[in-house]
Amino acid sequence: MSESDRRLVQTAVVGSASSGLGIVLPQEADELRRLRRRYPAYTYWCGTQLGGCGGKLSDRLYVDKVCHFAHAPNASCHRSANGTDSADHLFVKQDLALWARGSGIDARAVLRDLGSGPGDAVDLRVRDSRQRVRFQFRRLPHPQWCSAREELARDAASLDWVFGPGSADPETLAEMYAANGWVLRFRCETQGVARRIRIRAEEARRSTDWVPLGACAMTPEGLRVPGARELRRAGRRPAVEAPPVPPVAAPGPRPATGADRRSGRRTSPLVRKVQRLVDELNALAASADADVRTKAERMDREAASWIERYGRLTGPDFWSGKATKVAGQGDGLARRLEKLAGTLR
């Protein structure tokens, strides 16, 4: 490595190379100065639990560009992930441990290497009740995911799976929807020098709000996210029947696309296309820079909002032309998803 370390390393661990205490370096100079004043004895390391080299890092303060960590001159490191989210598995583990203690749950959170590093997954094991929750970071092919599920389920009274951005295979999602009525998702949001879990439940056409881990509960049936049961009941409501065909004198509907004719049901080809493109984009963006990941997350939220809006369409909407407008918005969204995904392939 040259004397000038130009990589923007945004995360480290505190205390030693083997530490599991992650930290996100503030990007603004004033925030970094406050961190230095508050914790003058902190030492930073390219931790082995980050997939790093174990070397010591220095915090570089800049007023004209982003502050970041840097290795010592001539150090050799092949750490693959350096962005703000590169320590999320450590923050998830910390959040789970704190949540379990605060909830009076005798549980242990452990990192799992599924083939690409220590940040592939985090497992929560509740000892007395033999309940299991897996937070999955790495995308697994569906057969590999099935094998992992069978392995975890052997000694588990309940098993919940929570998928991170881009980590769910479409076939896996379909199986989870069929089995549970929803899929659990998580993401992490930066709060100061740490990152915190947010969780929601998603049905094919709608989702609950993102909530902190503290809003969730471990029940005899497993992890429960606020609003998930209502989500399943809403998803099972009978579809609204279209009104009878209007008199001949009334104008007929325009030739509709396959998506238009579905009245927003989860079987709509357009809905399936948007969902497939979002999953593909999230997978491609997982290893991209922070700007691309932010854009992918924004489009993920936009897609979820559109799918919910499309799912509320009724028969009269198709006669009024409202469905045509909403379907057009979906087509435009699909084109933008395809364009961004194409730049990342």
How is this structure best described in words?
The protein is α+β, with helices and mostly antiparallel strands and 345 residues long. The chain is 36% helix and 20% strand. The strands form 3 sheets. A 7-stranded mixed beta sheet has the order 6-7-8-9-10-11-12. Strands 2-1-3-4-5 form a 5-stranded antiparallel beta sheet. Strands 13-14 form a two-stranded antiparallel ribbon. A hairpin with a 2-residue loop joins strand 13 and strand 14. Helix 6 packs antiparallel against helix 7, helix 6 runs parallel beside helix 9 and helix 7 runs antiparallel to helix 9. It is globular. About 9% of the residues have low confidence.
Summary of the model, kept short:
Helix content is 36%, strand content 20%. The protein is α+β, with helices and mostly antiparallel strands. A hairpin with a 7-residue loop joins strand 4 and strand 5 (68-71).
